[in-house]
Design brief:
This protein has 824 residues and is an all-alpha fold. 72% of the residues lie in helices and 0% in strands. It has helices at 37-45, 50-61, 77-84, 95-196, 216-244, 254-281, 284-294, 301-309, 316-327, 336-364, 368-391, 407-430, 444-473, 478-488, 493-513, 517-559, 568-618, 624-665, 686-698, 700-705, 708-730, 737-754, 760-772, 783-789, 794-801, 812-815, 817-823; strands at 67-68, 74-75. Strand 1 (67-68) and strand 2 form a beta hairpin.
């Protein structure tokens, strides 16, 4: 909308002076700014629809001030009166005026759009022209910039060329100056060389330079250059003379070389004297000046060695004090712990001294690392070896010192302590210029000899303890004495553990002394083989001693086997002796089982030690681990052989006692009770009860001692032997039906006992034996039916049938002959 001069707002459009018929005038400015279509429309229709404004006013007053029409328009009270007049006038008479107004507005809007489109087109043409002009300007600028860059490149190339030329000129000038300087020095050197080559041994006519103490450094440098040149010239002349002959050889510089050598020696001695004087006064600046000059003579080696040789730490009194500190008082036996403390203290003192010397050497010498190398080398090749020679006196292997004096183990322990402490010293000194310590590994023979000496000493100690114990117990019976001796010589797991402890100590030394994996593996194998030999020999001898007691018990049993025609008194004495022999056998059985158990524990200790400590040291070397496993199996084979033979003897001992009990306790009436009308006894026979009780008692130690496949094999063999002994034993008796029931009860008792063996084959044999025992119970005519379900018992059943008390009276041989024929 527009504003008048008075400030009142007018509509956004205007009409001609005739408000009713004048055309509507729209302006582009009406659509600028915050344009609102509702406001435009309201301004268009306000004059034609005055009620539109009234409705707006009523709406502002409130919703309750007018009535609502059905079509949503508001009406005033006057409208209600007009409604009463009827519907003869039009409902919306302003529609024509509005249509005319809207058409006029649309036409003006169309004209305005065309004007706008025209202006937009003109603007686009103008923008395109300006853009083209701008692009042309940019292209011209780019060409100008490219030309500028090319100018800069030419300028840079020119500057570089000028710089290179200047550098070349500078190099030429520097080279010319150097040549001039060299020529000047050469002239001086030739003059000095002529002075030295004038006459042999004449050093009095030399230039003042060579006698001026303030110019010693310059003189030394010139003398070294002249000496080098003269020696090279003599070398070249020697080659020329050998080619063209001595006829053309001219006088050389031999005199100059001799005079220069004499002068250098004199100058070097003079500087060393000055160096010593400054060293005593601790004048480090003077020492450094002399050392720097002396470095021109063979890199100052003479000064370095001279300085190291005069150190107080290499004095004889100091080295004697080292021995007293480590070894203690003369005549006393040094212990490894005391030696370790003494070496630690001494080596700490040496390290501190070397560190102090390092500070002086660094401040004085131009090549301090070379001096430190000489100093440390002197420590490790002079002071330390002289001490170790007194400390480590190698004992002879053929006649080693006795264990009372420490034995070989004392030497090895001292060697390990000295090596470890010296190695620590070398590591400490390596931080101040020393390399690694190289110690020759020659100790393994001593290690093996020491282990053999320890084993021998331990066996002598055990034998002495057994002898002392035997003497303290006094005189005892032969069988009892054998039992006691066997128990005192039993295998001891504690002793085997001590063997392993010795070996662990030896392995620790092998690890300390052996730096290379191959050397370590070889030494570890050698040491571990000693353990295998010791354990194998010890447990094998222990098992053999336990076998000896079994053999002695067997000889006791055989000694009291008597014939049938003896007196009652002799028989009673023999029975008493047999009881004693049986007790000895049972005791020896238990002793052997204890030996087997301890043997197994000892082998397990060795195997565990191998797995935990040895195998990891052998694995880095191909084949070493497998070879040690084979050696371990081979070493234990002798013990396994002794254990196998002893277990066979144990079975023989048990079966011999079972046979004795059966022979002594089994009565003929046990299986052929009289038919006196008394109810049959369904209890096991006394012989069966005694045998089962004996087996239960004696095999208790076997169940504890044996395990795994060894236990299974032993009990299976024992069960088979028991089955065979019982079969042979029952062949001595005849059976009636009640006796057959008694036998079946015995077989059941035996079967229940052997079931604890967990041996299926043995259980099957006793089950078949129980079935076979039915041949004594059934009637003769029913015997053939026993073999229909179990034909495997026919052989044993044929033998059992002959033991029936009615075998002959019932003529069973004839009746069953057809059965035996068909079975064969």
């Amino acid at each position: 909308m527009k504003e008048t001069k008075g400030g009142t707002r007018t509509e956004r459009f205007s009409k001609s002076p005739s408000a009713d018929s004048g055309p509507l005038v729209l302006d582009i400015d009406d659509f600028k700014g915050d344009f609102s279509f509702d406001a435009l429309f309201g301004n268009l229709v306000n004059e034609l629809l005055p009620s539109y404004l009234e409705e707006d006013t009523d709406t502002i007053d409130g919703p309750g001030s007018s009535d609502a029409m059905a079509n949503g328009h508001l009406r005033t009270p006057s409208d209600s009166g007009k409604l009463a007049q009827g519907l003869s006038s039009p409902l919306f008479p302003e529609v024509d005026a509005l249509l005319s107004l809207f058409k006029n507005s649309c036409k003006q809007l169309t004209d305005l759009r065309k004007q706008i489109d025209g202006k937009l087109y003109d603007l686009k043409k103008e923008v395109a022209a300006q853009d083209s002009k701008h692009r042309k300007t940019l292209a011209e600028l780019e060409k100008g910039v490219d030309g500028l860059f090319e100018s800069f490149a030419r300028l840079d190339s020119r500057i570089s060329s000028v710089g290179q030329t200047a550098a070349k000129i500078g190099d030429h000038l520097q080279s010319a100056d150097a040549q001039r300087e060299t020529a000047s020095q050469t002239i001086d050197l030739i003059k000095y060389l002529m002075e030295f080559n004038s006459s042999p041994g004449d050093l009095m006519e030399l230039s003042p330079l060579f006698s001026d103490d303030s110019r010693v450094a310059e003189a030394a440098s010139i003398a070294q250059k002249l000496r080098s040149f003269a020696e090279d010239d003599i070398g070249r002349q020697g080659i020329t003379s050998s080619v063209v002959g001595n006829a053309t050889a001219s006088r050389g510089l031999e005199v100059a070389v001799a005079n220069l050598q004499e002068y250098c020696n004199e100058l070097e001695n003079r500087l060393l004297a000055r160096f010593d004087a400054a060293s005593q006064k601790r004048e480090l600046s003077t020492m450094a000046e002399c050392a720097k000059i002396l470095s021109q003579f063979n890199r100052g080696t003479s000064a370095m060695q001279h300085y190291v040789g005069l150190r107080p730490m290499f004095d004889l009194e100091v080295m004697n004090a080292d021995a007293r500190l480590v070894l203690g008082d003369p005549g006393s036996q040094p212990s490894p712990s005391n030696v370790a403390r003494g070496l630690s203290s001494l080596y700490k003192e040496i390290t501190d001294t070397v560190r102090k010397e390092a500070a002086t050497i660094t401040a004085v010498f131009p090549f301090p690392n070379d001096v430190m190398s000489i100093l440390v080398q002197r420590v490790l090749e002079d002071r330390v070896p002289k001490l170790l020679e007194k400390l480590l006196v190698k004992p002879p292997l053929l006649n080693p010192p006795p264990m009372e004096e420490g034995g070989l183990i004392l030497y090895l322990r001292m060697l390990a302590v000295a090596y470890e402490k010296t190695q620590d010293l070398a590591k400490d000194l390596s931080g101040v210029g020393c390399g690694d310590l190289d110690v020759e590994d020659i100790y393994i023979e001593y290690e093996q000899a020491s282990l053999r000496q320890l084993y021998k000493s331990k066996m002598e100690e055990l034998r002495a303890e057994i002898q002392q114990s035997s003497e303290s117990t006094g005189t005892i019976g032969r069988s009892k004495g054998a039992s006691i001796s066997s128990s005192q010589q039993q295998i001891s797991v504690t002793v085997v553990t001590e063997f392993v402890r010795w070996n662990e100590e030896a392995i620790s030394r092998a690890t300390l002394f052996s730096s290379q994996p191959a050397t370590l593996a070889a030494n570890v194998r050698a040491v571990f083989t000693c353990l295998l030999d010791q354990v194998s020999l010890y447990i094998t001898e222990g098992l053999e001693r336990a076998r000896d007691s079994l053999t002695e018990a067997a000889s006791l049993r055989e000694r009291f086997v008597l014939g049938t025609s003896v007196s009652r008194r002799v028989a009673a004495a023999a029975a008493s002796a047999a009881e004693a022999a049986a007790a000895a056998g049972e005791s020896s059985f238990r002793s052997f089982m204890v030996a087997v158990q301890r043997c197994g524990s000892s082998v397990a200790i060795v195997q565990q030690y191998f797995a935990n400590s040895i195998s990891r040291l052998l694995l880095p070397v191909d084949g070493a681990h497998a070879a040690s496993c084979e050696e371990m199996a081979s070493a234990m084979s002798s013990a396994e052989g002794a254990a196998y033979k002893g277990l066979q003897q144990c079975i023989e001992t048990v079966m011999a006692e079972v046979e004795r009990l059966l022979s002594a306790e089994q009565k003929a009436t046990d299986y052929r009770s009289p038919d006196d009308g008394i109810a049959p006894d369904h209890r096991p026979t006394n012989a069966c009860t005694r045998v089962v009780a004996y087996l239960s008692r004696v095999l208790e130690s076997a169940f504890t001692a044996l395990e795994g496949l060894n236990k299974q094999a032993f009990l299976t063999e024992l069960g088979n032997r028991l089955h065979k002994v019982l079969l042979n034993h029952w062949q001595k008796f005849t059976f009636n039906p009640s006796g057959g029931l008694r036998l079946k009860r015995d077989i059941t008792e035996y079967g229940e006992f052997v079931r604890s063996f967990n041996a299926p084959t043995v259980d099957e044999k006793f089950e078949l034996l129980g079935i076979t025992a039915n041949v004594f119970i059934v009637a003769p005519e029913s015997l053939s039916t026993l073999f229909e379900g179990t034909p495997s018992i026919r052989k044993d059943a044929q033998r059992f049938i002959q033991l029936r008390d009615d075998y002959k009276s019932a003529k069973l041989a004839a009746k069953l002959s057809s059965l035996w024929t068909s079975s064969s």
